[in-house]
Design goal:
Structural class: mainly alpha
Largest sheet: 4 strands, mixed
Number of strands: 4
Shape: elongated
Order of helices and strands: HHHEHEHEHEHHHHHHHHH
Number of helices: 15
Distance between the termini: 36 Å
Number of domains: 2
Strand order of the largest sheet: 2-1-3-4
Oligomer: single chain
Length: 377
């Protein structure tokens, strides 16, 4: 009770009453509580498990025209890991092409009859690798895996009389297990905060416009800035809970490391929360009902997500979109939390990203506040 009295004296009785009203309104709204709690958990689990650059259990067909020990060793080498699985082998190349055409085969290997003889003579032996390239990304990954396995098998057949003059030793830092979820989950944290924060804040304001309570607030002695602050602060607190919930899900479900400073992580997250609340306020000022606000949010959120590097590396984008991404606040937020979570860096390393993110947050907040006050006027 004393804490509530102290808080009321600190922020002012009128502003405290408005904040209390907004908090109770959010807690009574089951739809908003659903948006704050359920989607973050589902989206992190869905994207964390579904988004992966790795491919497994590709359907491989082998047409062995040599039928020798070495050709069988090559076939065994291709299925040593879980990348390929061999089904019924076609009798010839024509049958293999029919299987690829019908979608029953992802890749095929044809071992010629002279494969064993050429290896025994010390010469190069060629094999044919056929890949279904309808999905270009999977085809490229398949080629890389198959080429690596065939090259590894070839090295076992090579002469070992002379040692290689140069040898390399690869060390992976920050993600030694090459767990793809550790790359995607921090991006999904930003994605979840963007979708949840903008939708909740916009729906909250639009609902008040629909019910007429916004006009009732104008009849009170409260200033427009007090009305705006009273709407932002409860959302800020609620979205902090969403951030913590999403982080816990990432830690429990994917064993996501947390190597950095917790307070720095929350500080950066709160800056970005102001960004998404500002986007939500802008959506509310240009929408007349909840359905329109939700539909309009796609025009804001999808470009933010696609140009952020959350789901795909920014380096793989065309030059125009790579340059355009520098105006995207989500890009800087994801870079910051990836560095904090995976690398454990401090403010001295990511201060430039934080500064740009803070500048964009201030710009968006001022713009949304101006639109909100204009609408109140």
């Amino acid at each position: 009770m004393k804490i509530l009295i102290l808080l009321e004296n600190l922020v002012g009785a009128r502003l405290y009453a408005l904040m209390t009203k907004e908090t109770r309104q959010i807690l009574r709204d089951k739809q908003q509580l659903f948006l704050l709690l359920f989607p973050p958990v589902i989206q992190i689990c869905l994207y964390g498990f579904a988004l992966s650059p790795d491919v497994q259990d590709l359907r491989l067909a082998v047409t062995d025209e040599c039928h020798s020990n070495k050709s069988r060793e090559l076939t065994s080498a291709l299925v040593e890991n879980r990348v390929f699985k061999i089904g019924k082998s076609p009798l010839n190349l024509a049958d293999m092409m029919k299987g690829i055409e019908r979608g029953n085969i992802d890749a095929g290997v044809v071992i010629p009859p002279d494969f064993d003889r050429k290896i025994s003579q010390g010469g190069p032996a060629s094999i044919q690798l056929i890949i279904d390239a309808v999905d270009a990304n999977t085809a490229g990954i398949t080629q890389g895996y198959a080429t690596q396995m065939i090259s590894s098998y070839g090295r076992t057949l090579a002469s070992t009389k002379h040692a290689r003059p140069v040898q390399s030793e690869v060390t992976y830092v920050y993600n030694p297990g090459l767990i793809s979820a550790w790359f995607f989950v921090p991006g999904v944290l930003g994605l979840v905060l963007t979708l949840t924060g903008s939708l909740v804040s916009s729906v909250t304001l639009v609902k008040e416009k629909d019910s007429g309570t916004l006009e009732q607030l104008l009849m009170t002695p409260a200033d427009s800035w007090e009305i705006l602050v009273a709407k932002i602060v409860p959302l800020l607190v609620m979205l902090n809970g969403t951030v913590l919930l999403a982080l816990c899900v990432g830690k429990v479900m994917f064993n996501l490391p947390f190597r950095g400073n917790f307070f720095l992580y929350m500080f950066v997250s709160n800056i970005y929360i102001f960004v998404v609340i500002s986007i939500g306020i802008i959506l509310a000022t240009i929408s007349t009902n909840q359905r329109q606000a939700i539909l309009t949010s796609f025009f804001f959120n999808l470009p933010l997500i696609q140009l952020s590097g959350a789901l795909s590396p920014i380096e793989s984008m065309p030059d125009f979109f790579r340059t355009l991404s520098y105006l995207n606040p989500l890009r800087y937020y994801i870079q910051c939390i990836r560095n904090i979570l995976l690398k454990g860096v401090g403010f001295d390393v990511i201060w430039k990203d934080i500064s740009v993110l803070a500048a964009l947050a201030v710009l968006l907040l001022l713009s949304s506040a101006a639109r909100f006050r204009k609408q109140l006027g």
